[in-house]
Amino acid sequence: MNHKLPAIYFYIPQNQWPSDRILESSDLYWQWQNSLRYGQGRYNWTLQTYLHLKHDGFPCQLVGTLPTEGIVLAHRDFLPDNLQPTPQLLIVCLRADRSHHPYAQLHIIQNTQDEITRYSASLWQTYYMPHWPQSGLIPRDRQRGDTFENVAYFGQVDNLVAQMQADAWKHQVNALGLNWNIVDFERWHDYSDVDVVIAVRSFDKNRYNIKPASKLYNAWQAGVPIILGRESAYQYERKSELDYIEVASIDEIITSLKRLRDNQKLRQEMIDNGRIRSTETGIEELTARWRSFLTKVASPTYERWRDASSWQRKIFLQRRYFTLKTSNIKSRLNKLLPTQN
Q1: Residue 181 lies in a domain
Q2: Looking at the structure, do residues 212 and 327 belong to the same domain, yes or no?
Q3: This protein's superkingdom (predicted)?
Q4: Does some domain include residue 137?
Q5: Which of 19, 123, 251, 311 has its CA 20 to 30 A from that of 274?
Q6: CB-based contacts of 164: which residues, under 8 Å, 6+ apart?
């Protein structure tokens, strides 16, 4: 039996809307996003998702004021900590790399190893959703053929391992007959002259369990081999050694660059494999995943919340309140207690 979907809203507070008219087309998203210097992630998860679903004909609305009923999806930054759902309201927190929201009934996470999954599923129900690939992405120019010259990093400089920010690293790359480039934000969408991407945050044991695999998705979409650090999001996606090259030191990066430079067959195999893998995280596939989540998960959850008794809803919210209070007390105690050597 088909049930009518409840009203579905993507919420961006009115004071967070741009001064000019907000976008109506997903095709123009990168051009619009390029005008932002900070906080792009908040809009990637809300505005961009809304635009793709709207383009696909899915019934949803973008609002600047919180509705009183229906399903509301919002980035964690847009949800006040004290916001509690009414009996007619389901809150879906788009967590990204932020903390969970105390009272949202559902959370979207971008890494399957996100620490929120440690909590009881009856308290914080989480659902994994891959991040959208880079908007407006320009793939590597196929006319470059077998050329292997340009090594690039796409992202904030602060998220690049310190050794690769130094002049000594650039000299090491040049000694291999290659060029090193930290790509400016305005060109994060342009892979046309890139022959290999490197993205390593650190060489320690941090697996960055709240970060997405976006750089891997983008490399697949762009048709470029990629060298990555040991992060859980990348490892979750890895099905073969052709997906990416994993490294844990500067020496391993240099060895990997030499290997790619000297092995055109390997480069082409990685590009061909990436083209196949890219279909799993392309716009059409992710839009279908969002539709499925909203119809098969969020909507039934909304109906159960709406049909629950006032006592059941009260218990639901109180359990969260006391769990958070206990967690906060433990956190403060841990900060006060001396560390054990």
Answers
A1: yes
A2: no
A3: Bacteria
A4: no
A5: 251
A6: 153, 198, 200, 250, 253
